[in-house]
# Entry
Amino acid sequence: MGSQTYDFVVVGAGSNTLTAAAYLATAGNSVCVLERKDYWGGGCVTREATLPGFKHDLHATNVFLVKANPLIRCDELGLLSRFGLKYVETDDPYHGSLFDDGTGIRTYTDLERTCGEIAKINLADSKAYRIFAQRAAKYVDLLSWGMFSPPSNPATFLEILNQSDEGRYLLGFMRASAWQVISETFQDQRLQTHLYKMCGEMMVSPEKPGTAFALVLILGFSHRFTSGFVQGGSQKFSDALVACIEHHGGKVFTGQDVTCLRTANGKITAAETAGGEVFEAKQALIAGIAPWRLEKFIDGFDPGLTAAAQKALPSDFGVFLSSYALNEPVQPRYPVEYSRMQINQCCHTDVSKVRKMFAEVTAGDMPSDYFANFICASIHDPSRAPAGKATLYLYHMVPMIPRGRRSEDWSELAEPFGEWLLKGANAYIDNLEGNVLGVHHESPYEMEICSPSFRNGDVMGLGTFADQFLGGRPTSEFAQYRVPGIERLYLCGPFMHPGGGVTGGGRAVAMRVMQDLEMDLDKAFATY
Ligand SMILES: Cc1cc2nc3c(=O)[nH]c(=O)nc-3n(C[C@H](O)[C@H](O)[C@H](O)COP(=O)(O)OP(=O)(O)OC[C@H]3O[C@@H](n4cnc5c(N)ncnc54)[C@H](O)[C@@H]3O)c2cc1C
# Structure
């Protein structure tokens, strides 16, 4: 069995760990990345999961949060200019809600166009929306720099906010629920439903304290950054990171399942794979492994630390995702302009129904009313399907573990739920019947099989609650990416700051590591 030595060994080739590796390689270090699967990307992959020629984003499809990260915003590593990453450029409506009464709401990146759409249903709401969204965009600019650097101490952050009027205004959102703010700010039930459902994408009940902050972030991002579709599929985002790592001499090995992290004298030394290969880390090891799983990898790992990690709370619910290969693009049952919306929300006009649906899935019950989302990415990026054909990404919020069941019971629940999901879509899409060529379902159970960072199907890796934010994520013990008692071991994944999603969060990890090792940040970071 062989042994190789690098400055940095990185476990897992998801978008977060690849990002950390790309920064470290750009800074001139020797780096290797070890991925247990036979392809890289983790939750940022595109596969022909139904039929040849149909490219489905199996998990992340809206690769958009990362646009606020200097990684993309300043093209710090050259992913856009040198390593082949391209976003689909479109001014098609961003988010749209289709209602059961035949009406709809379309929102654009362009705020004025959005306000024009909202004015068609309620003039006062249109005015309130403009004020709210303008303020949110300002905050997003301010907050996004902090999101992509090592997290600040929550108490210090709150103290800073408390020192100005603007800060105190923002603080209010960190305490209020999304529903409180939505219901106090807007009158029309359709707009309330549209926004409530968007907030639910954070996988926390919009009734919980702190979720108003999600509303600020979502609206701020929506009007600040354009489409999140990567040309050719999300996989191309991961591919660009790998191209960057390899360009700088780094290596990405697939089919390498790390089963053991070796330590000596309280310091990390190497990763060992199931095949017995050893990858020694001279400087540090970065693991895409959640802290509550570390005991499986490290002999004699402190049980007190495992217990501390287990206090971190998962998201409130998960999603069930069906990927369809279609004979022709979908035709939503609404005015023709809705066919080009990027993200479609199927909604009921009565806001109490969306509140009930989220309450059900939070409580572990199956949804009784239909509130699916659908995305037909091939309309905006024809390279994802054979000529004239189409892909469909159809999903619904569900309990991660249905009440009284086990996670693995999804194996038997998946087929009937998938049928319910497709059948319900017929009320919103005209041409589904006879249009389906192939389907691939993914329940929360399969998500964890795909990547252990989706524990029980937690797409965010961990709940995005106010106290699991910044230096509180996942718990104060692990928040700075370091593992107490084990020198030079760092954690990187959706369970760490800045949280779930394709955020390029590994940038902050690389920064933390380089700061600890007193390396020159100028070699990789344009801003810090
Ligand atoms: C259905 C679904 C839809 C989503 N939609 C979106 C979206 O539209 N937009 C968005 O921004 N985000 C979305 N997300 C979330 C996003 O996919 C994740 O937050 C993101 O992929 C996390 O990246 P990561 O690199 O931290 O972890 P992962 O992507 O989970 O990658 C971890 C990698 O490490 C590997 N690994 C783990 N353990 C080992 C080991 N011991 N040895 C070797 N390799 C190992 C895994 O195989 C995996 O490849 C979605 C997630 C799901 C499940």
About this structure: The chain is about 35% helix and 20% strand. The CA atoms of residues 172 and 518 lie 38 Å apart. The pocket of flavin-adenine dinucleotide is lined by residues 11-17, 34-37, 42-44, 59-63, 65, 257-258, 288-289, 319, 321, 447, 451-454, 459, 461, 493-494, 500-502 (CB under 6 Å). The mean pLDDT is 95.
